[in-house]
Amino acid sequence: MNKTLKRLLLSAITLSMLFILSGCVRLGKNGKPTGTVWHLLGEPMGHLITFFAHNLGLGFGLGIVLVTVLVRLLILPLGLHQSRSAAYQAAKRDYLAPIFEPINQKMKDASTQEEKMAAQTELMQAQRENGVSMLGGMGCLPLLIQFPFFSATYFAARYTPGVLKENFLWFNLGHRDIPLMVIIAGLYLVQSWLAVKQMPEEQRKQAGITMYMTPVMMLFFGLYQPSAVVLYWFVGGIFSIIQQLITNYILKPRLKKQVEEEFKKNPPKAPKVAKPARKDVTPKGSANPTPSISTKKKNRNAGKQNRKKK
């Protein structure tokens, strides 16, 4: 069995296991969470929240904060790896803009479907020859690995016994709190703004509206969740901003230099697209084409000369 096949099989098995795990948190008939992810991750998180709250006397609010910090620190390398992959592909696209922009312009100016498909093929070939991912480097595997942790932390903050009966700072963990929701929306707006800030000017205009989608969604979901869950989102929002700052001001400058050095050693390749062959417009079944006028005249003159000789 070759290495490629082994990698494909390993990836398929890993993805299958992650899909099974990510969908196993659910509420039982007794209203309590159950399932594989809950027993493996969520329940231990709940016990840790209770340990911080009761054994160390910190309260459930700080217990949720500390457990969320520990979980986010644990999966932070995965998030940074995903951000690095996306930033690396973005740096490549920026460097190769002189090659990609004329092809994109061809796609915009295409008057027929054939011309558009030809330009798309040319773009895909240019990306493939220069090692640019069509998916932008956003792999699914790191996200799938993180998802069970997000799900388990949410259920631990929401369903750990005693959490919803305690106060923290100015709000009750079991009730909805509007000021806290506004703070959450502000955090995710900052994170979205930092993400959009590093985009090219053309993409930045397109992403202007989507920048407000996450904060609005957090406000909407916060209306139906207790403050214990919103507190978990608060810590997650801070980590999202930290991850975005690391990506923008540490990873991206380094990756930009790395891409420049790589293409200096191996200059970018322009796609070699063969010109489409001319179509044969001769009607089918016309093996003996109709003779031209000059041919007809020539034949008539030859006939007259033959009669004179006779």
From TrEMBL:
<protein>
    <recommendedName>
        <fullName>Membrane protein insertase YidC</fullName>
    </recommendedName>
</protein>
<feature type="transmembrane region" description="Helical">
    <location>
        <begin position="51"/>
        <end position="75"/>
    </location>
</feature>
<keyword id="KW-0813">Transport</keyword>
<comment type="function">
    <text>Required for the insertion and/or proper folding and/or complex formation of integral membrane proteins into the membrane. Involved in integration of membrane proteins that insert both dependently and independently of the Sec translocase complex, as well as at least some lipoproteins.</text>
</comment>
<dbReference type="Pfam" id="PF02096">
    <property type="entry name" value="60KD_IMP"/>
</dbReference>
<keyword id="KW-0812">Transmembrane</keyword>
<keyword id="KW-0732">Signal</keyword>
<dbReference type="InterPro" id="IPR028055">
    <property type="entry name" value="YidC/Oxa/ALB_C"/>
</dbReference>
<feature type="domain" description="Membrane insertase YidC/Oxa/ALB C-terminal">
    <location>
        <begin position="60"/>
        <end position="248"/>
    </location>
</feature>
<keyword id="KW-0449">Lipoprotein</keyword>
<keyword id="KW-0564">Palmitate</keyword>
<keyword id="KW-1133">Transmembrane helix</keyword>
<dbReference type="InterPro" id="IPR047196">
    <property type="entry name" value="YidC_ALB_C"/>
</dbReference>
<dbReference type="InterPro" id="IPR023060">
    <property type="entry name" value="YidC/YidC1/YidC2_Firmicutes"/>
</dbReference>
<feature type="transmembrane region" description="Helical">
    <location>
        <begin position="208"/>
        <end position="224"/>
    </location>
</feature>
<feature type="region of interest" description="Disordered">
    <location>
        <begin position="261"/>
        <end position="310"/>
    </location>
</feature>
<keyword id="KW-0143">Chaperone</keyword>
<keyword id="KW-1003">Cell membrane</keyword>
<feature type="transmembrane region" description="Helical">
    <location>
        <begin position="134"/>
        <end position="157"/>
    </location>
</feature>
<keyword id="KW-0472">Membrane</keyword>
<comment type="similarity">
    <text>Belongs to the OXA1/ALB3/YidC family. Type 2 subfamily.</text>
</comment>
<feature type="transmembrane region" description="Helical">
    <location>
        <begin position="177"/>
        <end position="196"/>
    </location>
</feature>
<feature type="transmembrane region" description="Helical">
    <location>
        <begin position="230"/>
        <end position="251"/>
    </location>
</feature>
<feature type="compositionally biased region" description="Basic residues">
    <location>
        <begin position="295"/>
        <end position="310"/>
    </location>
</feature>
<feature type="compositionally biased region" description="Polar residues">
    <location>
        <begin position="285"/>
        <end position="294"/>
    </location>
</feature>
<keyword id="KW-0653">Protein transport</keyword>
<dbReference type="InterPro" id="IPR001708">
    <property type="entry name" value="YidC/ALB3/OXA1/COX18"/>
</dbReference>
